[in-house]
Amino acid sequence: VLALSLASCAIHAIPTFQEPDKRLVNLQKEKDRLNRATDPVQRTKTQIKISEILLVLTSDAVRTGDLDGMQERLDDYVAAIQDAHKTMMKTGRDAHKKPGGFRDLEIALRRHVNRLKDIGDALTFEERDPVQKARDEASRIREELLKALLILSTSLM
Questions:
Q1: Which of 25, 23, 124, 113 has the alpha carbon at shortest distance from 67?
Q2: CA–CA distance from 113 to each of 49, 107, 108 (Å)?
């Protein structure tokens, strides 16, 4: 009986190998894809995917109380949406005539603003500032995209 008890303890003491978090693997795949992408619309769509993964990871960090991890993910999120915005604006394309990329980012940011509100609601008032700053930046970029998409269309009427 003693031998079986010791063997049982030894089996439980052996650590099991955990698979890496699929979201982190997907995040790295998207970052690799971004490094290879040259088309501005494809780069923007990849940045959208990256930003969405980062929001999920931010939400997880909030749920586990990892405020440092939350801040890191939010910083990466803001950098991703800013890069996507700059990528599209640097093309010099008319957003009304060729909305690809512009529209994709605007739609994603609309969802992100709502998601960031939900994330912020899960935090105390004192902890919300980084989330609110990210939300404000997403709203600002979205408004610029809407102006680019809509102002040109109203000037044609």
A1: 124
A2: 15, 10, 9
For the entire predicted model, the pTM comes to 0.83
CA gyration radius, the chain: 21
Q: Write the CB contacts of 91 (distance below 8 Å, at least 6 apart in sequence).
A: 40, 101
9: which 2 tokens? 């303890």
From the DSSP assignment, how many helices (H) and strands (E) are in the chain?
Answer: 6, 0
Structure tokens at 140: 């600002």
Question: Which residue in the block uniquely carries the two structure tokens 């939400």?
Answer: 59
List pLDDT tens digits, range 60-114: 999 999 999 999 999 999 999 999 999 999 998 888 888 999 999 999 999 999 9
Sign of the CA dihedral 136, 138, 143, 147?
positive
The total of other beta-carbon atoms located within 10 Å of residue 59's CB is 17
Per-residue buried b or exposed e for 6-41, using 16+ beta carbons within 10 Å of the residue's own CB: eeeeeeeeeeeeeeeeeeeeebeebbeebeebeebb
